[in-house]
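TL;DR need structure tokens for one chain.
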Amino acid sequence: MVREAINHDNTQQSCVYTRQDWYEEFEVMPVPNLPYDGELRQDDPWHWGTGQFALLVALQYSTTDNIHIVGFDLFGIEGYVNNVYKDTKSYDVSSKQQVDPSYWIYQNKKIFEHHPKHNFNYYVEENFLIPESWQNISNLKIIPLTDLEKNIII
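>> reply
TL;DR here they are.
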């Protein structure tokens, strides 16, 4: 995927990130370190997804206390892959079984918890199921996707 991103950046204006293990090989930026140390498999950076690292990059460069999260659906659609990149080179086909979101849920929660001074505005589709472990996170606000334009001030 890194090679694909680099090869399709005709303008050379994009900033591509990848894991700490690979960034020098590709001459791109390294994703930030995790904001904590943990002992579970979910705490190992190797088992973190692109979305969670994207949040860490956003936090690294944020000039505001508000982080807007769009497109983090977590769950598949009727048991199948739900990703904007599905059916493209380097990604799963739409007929593949959905990915278990438990790591993403856990890792997002860790990010929310370790950045208490930031407000996370998480935009969701109408029928989004809010993970139980997110119910009492004070700096997380679940917002209907229909309210996106009302909440982002540029």
